[in-house]
Amino acid sequence: MSVSEMNGKKILTTPITNEDLENINIGDIVYLNGHIVTCRDVAHRRLIEEKRELPVDLNGGAIFHAGPIVRDLGDNKFEMVAVGPTTSMRMERFEKEFIEETGVKLIVGKGGMGQRTMEGCQEFGAVHAVFPGGCAVLAATEVEEIEAAHWRDLGMPETLWVCRVKEFGPLIISIDTHGKNLFEQNKVIFNERKDKAIEEISKQVSFIK
């Protein structure tokens, strides 16, 4: 099974299937076992704009919008020092096509993503999740090993670091496979509350000209 319950936690394990994501909904908190690959702006551009094949198979896999701090131990050995999420919206214009071309199933980052990513998640069976900001050192402790490093010519933040992880999270599902987007739904709720608050405040200060 690629999705299971362990100590009250919902665990996704790579490789992830469409069936694993059927009962995952926005607002759910999940954790990841298996592998996750740091993958951000330049890697997305190389695949989508430059049509370069990725050096790692992401089918059924997970990516992390992150620019980590990594210690080089020599002999192709590395230690994860800190790995905090990068703003996911920076990848919005690439993500739908990225999902289609790679078969990635879990995208992790900071903040929400937009309409095209939501369409990609629904059409091709993927989810986006938010890793809490300010927890880069915690995230590093959940990386058991960096197993490979690809495209190191891009520099440390943009390198594709292939990480074996255990109970990586918490990951808050923000886009699910059912066409729902937590951030967009919250915007509607917040705007409704804002409008009511403005109306009430306006009544109380109506004497001000």
Automatic annotation (TrEMBL):
Its EC number is 4.2.1.32. Pfam families: Fumerase_C. It comes from the Bacteria. One of its GO terms (molecular function) is L(+)-tartrate dehydratase activity. Keywords: Lyase. Transmembrane segments: none annotated. It catalyses: (2R,3R)-tartrate = oxaloacetate + H2O. InterPro entries: Fe-S_hydro-lyase_TtdB-typ_cat (IPR004647), Fe-S_hydroAse_TtdB_cat_sf (IPR036660). The keyword Phosphoprotein does not apply. The keyword DNA damage does not apply. Residues 12-185 form the Fe-S hydro-lyase tartrate dehydratase beta-type catalytic domain. Belongs to the class-I fumarase family. Heterotetramer of two alpha and two beta subunits. This is L(+)-tartrate dehydratase subunit beta. It comes from Trichococcus pasteurii.
